[in-house]
Amino acid sequence: MGRAPCCDKVGLKKGNWTLEEDQKLTAYINEHGHGSWRALPKKAGLLRCGKSCRLRWTNYLRPDIKRGEFSASEEQKIIQLHALLGNKWSAIASHLPRRTDNEIKNYWNTHLKKRLIKMGIDPVTHKPQCSTLVSANNYRSSLVPASNASAGNLSAVNHMAQWESVRLETEARLAREAEMRAKGTWRPSSSVHYLTQQSRSPDVHDLSSKRTFASVANGSTGTGIQMQLNAASNGVFGELDFGKLRADISFMASCLVKNDNLTTFQQRMCSPYIAMSETELSNSLIKWEKTSQSNAGMAWSDSLKLKSSNNMNIAQGRDSSSCSSPSQASEHGSPTSTLSSLDLVSKQKPNYTDPSSQKVRRLCWHDNKPSNISTPLSAFEQAQSPPSADVILAAWYGAAGKGHSREGSPSPVPCLEEIMQCETLNDTSEGSLLIGSKSSDLLCDLELVSEGMSSSHHHHTSVDVDGGDDGHDICEISYSTLLAEDDYECEWTNILEEDVEAVSAALDDAEANEQLSFGCSMN
DNA sequence: AACCCACCCAACCGCCTTGGA
DNA sequence: GTCCAAGGCGGTTGGGTGGGT
């Protein structure tokens, strides 16, 4: 038995809509809203089925839809999104404001698909159908800004797609979680691994007193990052299994080097501001790796229990990010740079959601920059874009390798924080930092909720991991600014109580069973 | 002018999902 | 848990259109 029709179609009109019908439908919806689509045609005096009315409205008559030619950037976006999502037209449409899924679908089928085929690109896989290098390059340049295109290769596109996919999934996840939190139904992952009580530093505040906490560290074996954030009342950060972190970053970097994916990495990280060549960066990282072995035993065999001394007096609403220079940051209480460390240069961020209250933080080498990483400081001082991959990698390495780099800070955690916050450099109020790794079980679903750097904004940072098709896992640190402060406060409260309970219990269990250990080996 | 053909895209079809009873 | 209505979604259709012969 076939499916029953959506409505009784006897006597109903089909085919193209007339102007009169459009006017009737528009007038009715403007006055009454659409309500039940099934009932609408009768009420509106139309001899159409409800479904037909709905489609006509959503795809054509709705006032908030944009019609007409697609811009180059829209085309580029459609191709990118199609590479990630396939024929998920509604999902694609959700990233193209005011465009309907139907319109995008049609445009794809009639224009873009053919264009790709002409270029020798399989429109399904987005990979070259044959070795038509010129066409493939054209394809790449249609996806990658010109400033980047020269440095990349086609694999960059695929990786970008994977990364973008992760980002989209993370966005969706965060949205889901936010919704759950708003409903008070959110719970941390059941497979949470926490640090043992013993591993916590005395200077880390007791969890139960934390103002800010929302951490899910989905523990697994191997090379992942395990973090626990015991957010102090005056800021963020607590403990981190830096042995694993370092091992993972090290592994990641070697994979990147081995697999010739640094270009991809650079592109995704920093676009036009790539100060080092791929070879230069590879060599630097390898060299650094060798030279760092000597102190690795000490620096990485211990679980570093950390409290950020770079917590920027958040409780007082101050932080170094609101300073216009490192020296000012220092005056505001942030520690000064000592070793070959990172420091922050804050600059006013253009086009920010709230320019008056937001500052841009930029990572740069302040002094004693590692000699084997030739990052020209001026390039970053002048740049109006996120720092390049070498700086970020160097930041991780610098942080990891030196153990710590700041006076008064026993740990590199501040550097991690800086890396996260560096994402505020993005042109929008949200962004992400992505790190690839070849470990198949790279873990980590960490979420940090902290009070924002300014009094009027809260920042939401998370780390997520997902697997790429090519065997690489991708760790994403995403960042967003939540502007709906009231909602956020509500969410915040909900999280706090639940998490304190959950984490306390987890800590107790861990302590009792000695399930968790830190100071993982480096291999 | 008439015909053919390829192309475009609005609209349709049918399956799937969701949410309420 | 089941049923069902409503809406969402993606694949496909077919009428309109324009260019070529």
From TrEMBL:
Polar residues compositional bias, start-end: 189-201, 331-341
Compositional bias of kind Low complexity: 320-330
Keywords: DNA-binding, Nucleus, Repeat, Transcription, Transcription regulation
Region annotated Disordered, chain positions: 189-208, 315-341
Residues annotated as domain HTH myb-type: 9-61, 62-116
Lineage: Eukaryota, Viridiplantae, Streptophyta, Embryophyta, Tracheophyta
Start and end residues of each Myb-like domain: 9-61, 62-112
GO cellular component: nucleus
Nucleus among keywords: yes
Keyword Heme: no
Chief site of localization: nucleus
Protein name as it appears in the record: Uncharacterized protein
UniProt source species: Ceratopteris richardii (Triangle waterfern)
Entry-linked SMART domains: SANT (SM00717)
